[in-house]
Amino acid sequence: MSWPSYRKRYLPSMTLAGIQAISDREDALVILPTGAVEQHGPQLPVGVDALLSQVYLDLALPKLADEAPVYVAPPIQAAKSNEHDGFPGTVILHRESLRRMILSAGRQIKEWGFQRVAILNTHGGNISVIKSALRELHLKYELKVEVLSFPYETEITDRERAFGIHANDVESSLMYALTPDLVDPSAATCCWIGSLDDPKILQSEFAPATYAWKTLDISRSGTVGDATIGTAEKGRLWAERAANSLVRRLNEFVGESE
User: Fold this and answer.
1) Is the pLDDT of residue 201 over 80?
2) Which of 81, 95, 113, 161 is the most exposed place for a label (fewest CB within 10 A)?
């Protein structure tokens, strides 16, 4: 077994004695990945969100200094994906189930002697639950917690940036580059829920006010955006930028604890 490439930082690969031997547990950072298993259009596997968090870590963690006190907890791979109900391949956790899983993981991490937890989330539908759970972890267990954000630049159109919210150019390009044996670019589709001039009833994802929605209401293929323009070349470039951005953020975390 060669996965993951960061096995020396992956808590499930360690023995009990190995975890207890970590001398800087109070200042160390434990990453808790949260993803999703849900449809991602006809061109991508249903595990996109679960896979991407692992790929980001695979690319970024080997770039850290060997002595950097950063570790990875067991991932939560299926989560709150009820907006994709009705498509085969979607695994849905109730918001309360996801909340309890995050709280349970945080409590165990605390009992192992760690004090700092960062959520590496790759599914937007989880965010509201994560933020609420992190408040509870801080108040109940006095953990230092936050969402691990690592923005990176992508050369996408204004329309894609506003309305390409699922199985889009970015996700497709990343998966074409990183998991070429799991994708079918020839099956990619384009579906717009609005334009910059006429956003329709359903506003872009980050608009000040939006309506509740279900993917089947707006896209029969499951794609929201233009997946037909995705390329592996773009994906390789963006994946490297993502990894470098994640490394910079982790180094900031490590510096904050010193």
Assistant:
1) no
2) 113
What single letter denotes the amino acid at residue 129?
V
Instruction: Kindly give the pairing relationship between strand 144-147 and strand 225-226.
Output: unpaired
- pTM for the complete prediction? 0.92
pLDDT for 213 equals: 74
For 220-245, how does the pLDDT look when each residue is reduced to its tens digit (9 = 90+)?
999 999 999 999 999 999 999 999 99
Size of the chain, expressed as the number of residues it contains: 258
Instruction: Please say if the pLDDT value at position 203 is more than 80.
Output: no
Write out the two tokens for 160: 């894609």
Domain range annotation of the chain: 7-153+237-256, 158-236
* pLDDT at 97 > cutoff 60: yes
Answer yes or no: CATH 3.40.50.10310 is held by domain 7-153+237-256: yes
Task: Round to whole Å and give the CA distance between 54 and 131.
Answer: 21
What single DSSP character describes residue 97? H
CA distances from 49 to 4, 64, 126, 250 (A): 17, 23, 11, 20
Q: How many CB atoms lie within 10 A of CB 40?
A: 27
